[in-house]
Amino acid sequence: MRLFVTAALAAMTITPAAATQVALTNSVFVERVSTDGNGNRKVVLEEPKMVTPGDRLVFVLNYRNASAKPAEKFVVTNPLPAAVQFAEQDEAAAVVSVDGGKSWGSLAQLRVRTADGAERAAQYGDVTHIRWAFNQPIPAGGTGKLMFRGIVK
Amino acid sequence: MNNILKLRTGSVLAAAAVLAAGPAYAAGTPSSTVITNTVFVDYQVGGVSQTQRTAADSFTVDRRINLTVAEVGTVTTNVVPGQTGASTAFTVTNTSNAPLDFVLAAAQLAGGTAAHGGTDVFDVTAFSLFRDVNGDNVYTAGTDTPITFIDELAADASVTILVVGNIPLSATNGQVAGVRLTATAREAGVTGTQGAAITQTVGANTAGVDTVFADTAGVADAARDGAHSDDDDYTVVTAALNVTKTSRVVSDPINNTTNPKMIPGAVVEYCIAIQNTGAAAATNVTIDDSVPGQLTFSTGSILLNGTVTGSTCNADGVAGGTYTAPLVEGTIASIAAGTTRTLVFRATVN
């Protein structure tokens, strides 16, 4: 899945203050799906100005290694906001947590202990954190984009 | 500012599957909630861990106005002529993601088809609205309180509203009176005060809290108008009694019981049959019959609650009733809908 962001994003940016820094841009969009008269699906991302429960959200994280050296053991962790249910992540390499960040794995691997002591397979609604861990260093000046989807509870 | 997202087919299917399995949010996240997503990055440079980087993005959940008015149950309210405080119950549910007031309006149908298929032919009197305080879905005088608007109804909460009226004595079996309840969302905020009317946010979305009407069309209101409505009805279910009186000669002093004739000294048996052609039991049915002056009542001959077979009086039943010259009187406790019961007595020709 590719995301083409053609316009400037009104998002908060942490500006690097030192030389060995990584720059991050974290953005949220509302995903609106419409079908035209010919039955063609059209998906539009809007700024999150009109958001009501049930709306689908796309979270986008842009990163850039602004330093002159490679950034190693690059790990991006995103706790889910309490009012958002996880829907899907874009990167197959991402792992999720259903216990507040204590243990990690793919959703299919994770189990949830229920109130009566039994265990069941983890579901989308159980996800509390998403994490991307990079095997390769991010080279100096290297950039990339991570994204996942959620639904407003 | 719109951004076009291109999706691979597989991803579209995956997204659709997620949607289908997605949670159903009635009210959902309260409006004005600020959702902040924060991301953390840990990394090393030259084998040395660097300061953790974070980035955050926030947006505000807007206000979705939605409500449901629905009759309680799926059947008409059965009433009898002259009944006071007859009620039909509705629930008003706030499925918005914000607390709201709801102004209530009740109306009576003027003809047309009522909620359960009958034709509206009469109106109830003393038409009014009450809050169902004791939660039994019927009007209880002195307990349920008059109401014109629902005050400060929380998201996902509901209130039972009773539409109450008196049934005219002139109403007849099977007649229907249709009623309608409409609730319209109003601003909440001040307890005990009906809030101001709500309008949708028009024009461009704002970064603040916008208002969106998301309600469906009710029986008498449009979709996305901040209001919802439903119908219910009263159906008159009452007894309808037909009375027939028959007599036969039981015996005479000459022929005894063989082809007896109506001569002085003959015994005559009267049968008063009460047929209930209505839809409800008639109770405490009291029958008075005046014995003609040419006859002498046979003491102890009154039989109550007897039956008929076809049009033939079976002259059965239980002894009872009273005779106070010239009146024979008896009371039948209950005559069920669709049945016939009799009062039988005998007298002698003077």
User: In terms of structural class, how would the helical and strand content of chain B be classed?
Assistant: mainly beta
Main sheet summary of chain A:
6 strands, antiparallel
The gyration radius over C-alpha positions of chain B equals 36 Å
Whole-number count of domains of chain B: 3
If helices are DSSP runs of H or I spanning 4 or more residues, what is the number of helices of chain A? 0
Structural class of chain A: mainly beta
Helix content, binned percent of chain A: under 10%
Q: Taking all residues together, what is the mean pLDDT of chain A?
A: 81
Indicate the low-confidence ranges of chain B by residue numbers: 1-24
Note poorly predicted spans of chain A. 1-19
How many strands appear in the DSSP assignment of chain B?
27
In the residues of chain A, how many domains can be counted?
Answer: 1
Tell the overall outline of chain B: rod-shaped
CATH superfamily of the largest domain in chain B: Immunoglobulins
* Percent in strands of chain A: over 45%
Order of helices and strands of chain B: EHEEEEEEEEEEEEEEEEEEEEEEEEEE
User: Approximately how much helix is present in the residues of chain B?
Assistant: under 10%
Features:
heterodimer; A: 153 residues; mainly beta; Immunoglobulin-like; six-stranded antiparallel β-sheet; three-stranded antiparallel β-sheet; B: mainly beta; 3 domains; five-stranded antiparallel β-sheet; 1 helix; 48% strand; disordered N terminus
Strand and helix map with partners:
The complex is a heterodimer of chains A (153) and B (350).
Chain A (H helix, E strand, L loop, with lengths): L1 E2 L9 E2 L7 E14 L5 E6 L9 E10 L6 E8 L4 E6 L5 E3 L13 E3 L5 E3 L7 E5 L9 E10 L1
Chain B lengths: L1 E5 L2 H13 L12 E12 L2 E2 L3 E8 L2 E3 L1 E5 L5 E3 L6 E9 L5 E9 L16 E7 L13 E2 L2 E5 L4 E9 L9 E12 L23 E3 L13 E10 L4 E11 L15 E10 L5 E9 L4 E3 L5 E4 L1 E2 L2 E2 L4 E2 L2 E3 L2 E9 L4 E10 L1
